[in-house]
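Dock zinc ion; give full complex structure.
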Amino acid sequence: MKTAVEVLELFGNIRRAQNAGVYAPHKPLLILLALARVQRGEPRMVEFTAVDCQLKQMLAEFGPSNSAKSRHYPFWHLATDGHGSIWSLSGPREILNRSAGATPSLGELREYHIRAGFPVDVDEALRCIPGLVQAVATQVLETYFPATLQGDIAAAVGLDLERGAEALDAPSLTTGYGNAQRRRRDPDFRDRVLRAYEYRCCVCGFDLRIGHMPAGLEAAHIQWHHVGGPDIEPNGLSLCALHHKLFDLGVFTVEPAEHRVIFSQHAIAGSRGMEGELQFHGNPIHAPQHSDLRPAAEFLAWNTKNVFKTPARQITSLMPNRPAAR
Ligand SMILES: [Zn+2]
């Protein structure tokens, strides 16, 4: 059985699916799903079909556009991480003997009843060491997802992060791994971004204060910090807590030419319609107080490509007096 330190180290070194800067949440979401299964006391190995539906929903909600199409990749590719020390597969030889690059199709994974799970020594440690599941899950969440989404993702996979979390009482165990992927946050980033936008949400103008302190206002990274986005004003937006979450979910983005707020066609405003969130669609953001502080095109492009849920809503039909979006 592996020790807690060894297990945390293993999960701190998962290879990113693609190049740095490209956001691929497939592997971490699969790991979180598998951790939740361990926490519920379910069997070590699971057939692909049993997690297929949940992976699809998770990627549709928390992944970039179209990422659900490749939802089966990590089920196969995670087995090559750490030379098989993180994930093991079982199934007919004709499939398992393939080269790592020859990913089976969705249909093959179903047809051949391919199963996977944590290797025995990792699985045992996760089940036997109190608090280890929570420590690994927290490490994975913090490494791959923005703070706005971590709680929602844990809830969606059914992970209970509170239960027994204090049990792993040596704090040094839960820090220090995966730091190659994690960078320090600049503690001044929030202040600089909020000041740039004069302490209001650049989408809706929300600017409540408690005394002198802004309340419910956050500095969002346009290119997420944990995938290389720098702590500089051109990579920041001052957003109220609601718009920060919607932005990180890819419900809207900001286009680079005129800095207009563009909502996704997947965002449906329900009964509030144009009086609700969609009233902001097509509006320019409240500009920062200096042109040097404006959002930079490269970071907006990253957000549109990796987070925004395409396709975008049309602008002309909503804002008839404006030129069409490019
Ligand atoms: Zn707002």
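Observed: The radius of gyration is 21 Å.
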